[in-house]
Specification:
By secondary structure, the chain is α/β, with parallel strands linked by helices. The protein contains 13 helices and ten strands. The strands form two sheets. Strands 1-2-10-7-8-9 form a six-stranded mixed beta sheet, sandwiched between helices. Strands 5-4-3-6 form a four-stranded parallel beta sheet, sandwiched between helices. Helix 7 packs across helix 8 and helix 8 packs parallel to helix 11.
């Protein structure tokens, strides 16, 4: 379980390694106050850099990180990019296992980062199994895409920054895949703001876990599966969600597409579909703020293919 104290420690540890991302007022004409936390402007284009640096720096401090072997991660996109970037900054090798279904633009960026990329298997679960074997055989530090304490605590820095700049925030809308970002933010703002997780109907990891009382596998499909395509919610994120009372809302693929388009047409913000899911909860009516409510939407990633915009 991750606490606010662990998030604060991670934030201090990664200071100077990650960006303090902007908070932008939307200028909306609704009877509530809307702000965007622009985490898509983080290094490598997503919040994942926060957890990656916290995981690697913690491993380095403890002596776990072998500079000759480095780190290994299984990721079809953002987590791989973030960990490869962090490894390069710390001067250690990175090996990234990705499924065949990984978006071509993200795989290209992985190669450009200098990481060793091993592509194979139909989905993330196969890349994950291969990465675990590699870590055991080579002694590499394994960096989970979303379900390690250091990863979740690092991601929680988004929540600390938000509270610092917008202390009267009532509700935070955040997209959920594996739950690392949601769990980190919920721990960071516990007792101070409400967190609402937003998921595609086609990948309801948190929604299903809350209904079942535990993380369970779900089918993965849909337009946001490249970034929100975890088969099940992480144990850490789920535990924090239960402890802090995180609510889960579902949106359709069409809701996500419309939200992504609206972010560009109205605000000139370009994000990936997974990041647009949080905003889709507002535009679709899945979440209706009360009059005067202060709402922050976490725009968590921008690693999208412009050709598909």
């Amino acid at each position: 379980m991750v606490t606010r104290e662990e998030v604060e420690a991670a934030y201090s540890r990664t200071a100077g390694w990650v960006r303090h991302t902007p908070l932008a007022e939307s200028g909306n004409q609704e009877p509530y106050h809307l702000w965007f936390k622009c985490e898509y402007m983080q290094h490598t284009g997503s919040f994942k850099a926060r957890g990656a640096f916290n995981r690697l720096l913690t491993a380095k401090e403890s002596g776990e990180l072998n500079p000759e072997v480095g780190i290994v991660v299984a990721s079809g996109g953002n987590a791989g990019l973030a960990n490869a970037y962090a490894a390069a900054k710390l001067g250690v090798p990175a090996t990234v296992f990705v499924p065949e279904s990984a978006p071509a633009n993200k795989v290209h960026k992985l190669y450009a980062s200098g990481a060793k990329v091993v592509q194979g298997g139909a989905e993330y679960a196969e890349a994950y199994a291969a990465a675990i074997r590699f870590a055991e055989e080579k002694g590499a530090v394994y960096c989970h895409a979303y379900d390690q304490p250091e990863i979740v605590a690092g991601a929680g820095g988004v929540g600390l920054e938000l509270l610092d700049e917008l202390p009267d925030v009532d509700t935070i809308l955040v997209a959920v895949g594996g739950g690392g970002l949601m769990g980190g933010i919920a721990a960071a703002v516990e007792g101070k703001a409400r967190v609402v997780g937003v998921e595609p109907e086609t990948v309801p990891t948190l929604h299903t876990a809350l209904a079942k009382g535990e993380p369970v596998d779900v089918a993965v499909s849909g337009i946001a599966a490249d970034s929100l395509g975890a088969r099940r919610i992480g144990e850490i994120g789920f535990g924090v969600a239960r402890r802090t009372g995180v609510q889960s809302l579902l949106v359709t693929d069409e809701d996500i597409v419309q939200a992504r388009r609206a972010l560009w047409e109205t605000h000139r913000i370009v994000v990936e579909h997974g990041a647009a899911a949080a905003y889709a909860a507002l535009l679709s009516g899945a979440y209706t703020p009360r009059s005067g409510e202060t709402v922050a939407v976490i725009l968590c990633g921008a690693n999208t293919d412009p050709a598909h915009f």
